[in-house]
């Protein structure tokens, strides 16, 4: 196995003309694709010099034609192909790809991304190996997986103990996509705490699968969506299950602030990945806010945020009982 960073630690001139990357873990393929695109394909050339081809009829002919198309006002043309079940069985049109690989244009960079195993006995696969490189990406295991989980939490300035790491591994094994999703939810729920321990994770994940059902985030979504009836129903459900009102309120305020920040950065042309990096927030909540950013004006969001901050003051000072104060904030 080669690490993604090791593969991408090359200049564009050092790259092989053809890469076939395969993995049982779609998460790794997506990460590789993101990193490859970010490093080697500047935004200003994408419109005319990047082609993405997904599983389609006449794939070999299409790839051959695209590969032989010269780049426009740059040195390289990039083609990223997600061919589905291709390279797993012999195909009558393999000859078109073999012809291409044996007479490959220097101005084209070809990248195949395949979810699953490939048949290395196929002639077309052997031709790729002869003219390019074939790489398998494997999920980390054992100590490597421990370090991966630690790094994921560290990205968001969180620390996690060994017992908690073992718990996550026991629940989700080395399924990186599931682990990333759950870590994102945990970080979101514990956004105001630096250290995350076994009891935190146990309570968050196991208590009626609160995170799995996303109750508290569904509550915020209902508020933002102006669905007052649903918001009150979810609020009562959470309170009956023992949720702390100020914790609910803290999460709502945090998500409204995040929505304002995402909206501002989206107006500046930033995408989800850029916003996540700038704000140092996991992509999971950023993606949710990104889709809602255009629904409200800045003024509407600021009024909503001010309302819930006032509710926090009312609860802390004892002016209103917590459940009543939250309901009042919802129906205003």
Automatic annotation (TrEMBL):
InterPro entries: DNA_pol3_clamp-load_cplx_C, DNA_pol3_delta-like_C, DNA_pol3_delta_N, DNA_polIII_delta, P-loop_NTPase
Annotated catalysed reactions: DNA(n) + a 2'-deoxyribonucleoside 5'-triphosphate = DNA(n+1) + diphosphate
Pfam family, one: DNA_pol3_delta_C
Residue ranges annotated for the DNA polymerase III delta N-terminal domain, each copy included: 19-136
Gene Ontology biological process: DNA-templated DNA replication
GO MF: DNA binding; DNA-directed DNA polymerase activity
Any single Gene Ontology cellular-component annotation: DNA polymerase III complex
Top EC class of this enzyme: transferase
Highest taxon listed in the record's lineage: Bacteria
E.C. no: 2.7.7.7
Gene3D superfamilies noted in UniProt: 1.10.8.60, 1.20.272.10, P-loop containing nucleotide triphosphate hydrolases (3.40.50.300)
Keywords annotated in UniProt: DNA replication, DNA-directed DNA polymerase, Nucleotidyltransferase, Transferase
All copies of domain DNA polymerase III delta subunit-like C-terminal, residue ranges: 215-332
Nucleotidyltransferase in keyword set: yes
Family listed: Belongs to the DNA polymerase HolA subunit family.
The protein's name in its UniProt record: DNA polymerase III subunit delta
């Amino acid at each position: 196995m080669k690490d993604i960073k090791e593969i991408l630690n090359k200049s564009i001139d050092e790259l092989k003309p053809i890469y076939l990357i395969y993995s049982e873990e779609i998460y790794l393929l997506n990460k590789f694709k993101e990193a490859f695109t970010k490093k080697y394909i500047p935004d200003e050339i994408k419109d005319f010099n990047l082609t993405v081809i997904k599983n389609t009829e006449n794939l070999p002919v299409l790839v051959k034609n695209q590969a032989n198309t010269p780049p426009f006002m740059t040195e390289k043309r990039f083609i990223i192909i997600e061919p589905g079940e291709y390279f797993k069985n012999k195909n009558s049109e393999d000859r078109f790809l073999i012809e291409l690989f044996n007479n490959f244009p220097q101005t084209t960079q070809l990248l195949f991304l395949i979810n699953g195993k490939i048949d290395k006995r196929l002639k077309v696969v052997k031709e790729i190996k002869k003219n390019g490189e074939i790489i398998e990406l494997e999920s980390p295991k054992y100590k490597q997986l421990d370090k991966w989980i630690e790094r994921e939490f560290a990205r968001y300035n969180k620390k996690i103990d060994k017992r908690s790491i073992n718990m996550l591994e026991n629940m989700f094994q080395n399924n990186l996509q599931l682990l990333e999703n759950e870590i994102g939810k945990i970080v979101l729920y514990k956004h105001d705490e630096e250290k995350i321990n076994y009891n935190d994770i146990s309570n968050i994940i196991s208590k009626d699968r609160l995170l799995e059902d996303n109750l508290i985030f569904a509550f915020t979504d209902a508020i933002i969506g102006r669905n007052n009836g649903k918001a009150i129903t979810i609020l009562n459900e959470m309170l009956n299950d023992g949720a702390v009102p100020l914790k609910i309120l803290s999460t709502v305020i945090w998500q409204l602030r995040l929505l304002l920040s995402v909206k501002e950065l989206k107006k500046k042309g930033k995408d989800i990945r850029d916003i996540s990096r700038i704000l140092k927030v996991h992509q999971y909540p950023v993606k949710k806010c990104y889709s809602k950013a255009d629904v409200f004006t800045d003024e509407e969001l600021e009024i909503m945020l001010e309302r819930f901050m006032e509710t926090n003051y009312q609860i802390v000072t004892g002016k209103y009982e917590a459940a009543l104060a939250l309901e009042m904030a919802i129906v205003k």
